[in-house]
């Protein structure tokens, strides 16, 4: 047989489109031609494959003209993942391996010059795609555990090209790799028991966890803002299996380890010097950024005003849509970005505006410039804006413990079950369904309209107030929000009072 077709897959964000590696041997001037929109690393596979076949003691057809086509031709191919399918295609086309042995199999892997198989990134999306088609997967042993996370999939791992050839020739068999998924567990190192005082901030944290709301802590240094934010994942419900796979697929594309954080909600805390591309993703070949790595988890931005304003503004659209679209001249990618934003900030550059312990030394213009780094449209998207004041000495030295994360999580889970029965978390509920779920009394609606006009809140802020009020009703076991929930929700929106602007 002089024509062979081997199935493999490319990497296109979180997608893994099928690629057919077509190999044709013909008479003519000896040589090897590779077509199908390969990038540089794929073009270099010609030399890696040639050396791997020769050093493994296999025949490379040096007297024939070899044409390699990676189909579809308009799909960009990158990386060394096509080395193994190209090598197997040459062996099948030259008659060294029977073609029927590769029926129902896909393969990928980079080859060393001596024939060893090297790990490639982004294998989990490939495994999930192969599982959907019902095919098995041949790949490097270093990727076996990652591929096995896909579940019901035949994973055939190998360390060397010769192992694959022996398996396909029925000389020795590669046993399918099995892996029990680690149990999905909750983080145990961060507990709300360790937080003293700050009852309003703890309440806001519970509300944010229950409804999926964004949250801003503002207060002097050392009042526990970071401590509170780091405990949010511990009161969130555990991920479902599908959510855990989605989170793991993003980490796989970024080349991050999967086993150590399997099933846990991400907590990402980028430094304030991070660029827009680092935060939302990008590059010449667009990769996920911090907001996608925080998908189904928490994105914590400490010292919020220290971030570049242009960096913060790029988050506005994904905060609403739950995904990010990255477009470059020759590449477009979409990544999920359904995260909870938790931010912390000082009220002024020195941090002591409104602090009874220490006087503020900032001028009015410095305070205005500092707080003005946050745009109104961004703040409009933060549902809960909470002051975290300095604790009095008696609370700092008190040994009285508050509720544990487990106790708070039980209420959060119960509130979320009510919301899922409604169709979605309150933070993501469509506007029409939100209005129907709230169903305010006529007097409450009139009172709310007066308050909105007095506080000059936008239409988006109005819906944010309704969402928080509905979450408060869910926590209280009420069918719809009343005046008490509306008042508390509005109290979380008064940023001017919170920051004590001068």
Description:
The chain contains 22 helices and 18 strands. It has 502 residues and is an alpha/beta fold. The chain has two domains: 3-168, Ribosomal Protein S5, domain 2 (2-Layer Sandwich); 192-499, P-loop containing nucleotide triphosphate hydrolases (Rossmann fold), CATH 3.40.50.300. The strands form six sheets. Strands 11-14-17-10-18 form a five-stranded parallel sheet. It has a four-stranded mixed sheet with strand order 1-2-4-3, covered by helices on one side. A three-stranded parallel sheet has the order 5-8-9. Strand 6 (110-111) and strand 7 (117-118) form a beta hairpin. Helix 7 runs parallel beside helix 17 and helix 18 (431-438) crosses helix 20 (459-476). It is elongated. Residues 289-347 form the MCM C-terminal AAA(+) ATPase domain. GO terms for molecular function: ATP binding; DNA binding. It holds the Pfam family Mg_chelatase_C. Keywords: ATP-binding, Nucleotide-binding.
